[in-house]
Amino acid sequence: MSISKACARMILVLSLAGLMMAIPAFAQDEGETAEQSTVYFSIASGTVADADTAGMAAAYTDFYSEGGFNEWFSKTRLGRSGIGELFIKGGRFMWPLLICVVVGLIFILERLWTLSRARTNTRKLMYQVQKALRSEGIDAATKVCERTRGPIAAILHAGLLKSHRGPADVKEAIETAGSIEMAFLEKGLTAIAAIVSVAPMLGFLGTVSGMINAFEAIAASDQVSAKLVASGISEALITTATGLVIGIPTSLFHSYFVGQVDRFVVEMEETSAELVSELVDLGI
Fold this sequence. Notes:
Layout: H1 3-29, H2 34-37, H3 39-45, H4 51-59, H5 68-74, H6 82-89, H7 94-118, H8 122-135, H9 138-146, H10 151-161, H11 167-185, H12 189-220, H13 226-282
Helix pairs in contact: 1-7, 7-12, 7-13, 8-9, 8-13, 9-10, 10-11, 10-13, 11-13, 12-13
């Protein structure tokens, strides 16, 4: 199982666990009985235990109506915090922005972990490979690569395995292995780039939604006041700021990852050229 899939499953499990703990807490805050608190689970699962529960479920269907979840969230401990209040004021587009945060964090953490493990001391590795080739031969050099993790060691290993076929086959093997390693290094960068683009656009979409709400309030009122349109303008500004707060750091991480991948490419080209040159010099 890849690290990104494991992170996604962990986030899903933690989210479900938090939801299951928060719903009964909400019921207790409102002075509800334990029997009433089970209604949320009946609605969520789509099952109704008996006629009494069915009647209670009908009374609580507005929990899942438009704005119902925000109303529930506002009564939780997190919803009463400063961040929670801003989240609620931001309107419905804050939820897709939250998804962008979760997805972006998963891929950023996965890339940080993967690229950190892919780093290796290229000069030291190349010295060990050359020393093994000159003193003990191909098998010893191959074992050096097998003991070292990372894309550099992988392409050297692929080239050494084809060394008995000549320099042309060595170059072809290195190029093939390099393409595979490049795909591995660039994995997830497309998703991060998508978050960079989508998050600000969602923020601007929330801005449009907030301004529409503000103008609707103006149209429905006989007298226009700043207080009347404050809610819509606040929603517009919060979603815009949230989209930019998500997009800017994610863009910086994306640029950093692209730079790291480019560095790996340069190192792979240099080491592969040195390996071919070494094999030619040794007449292998």
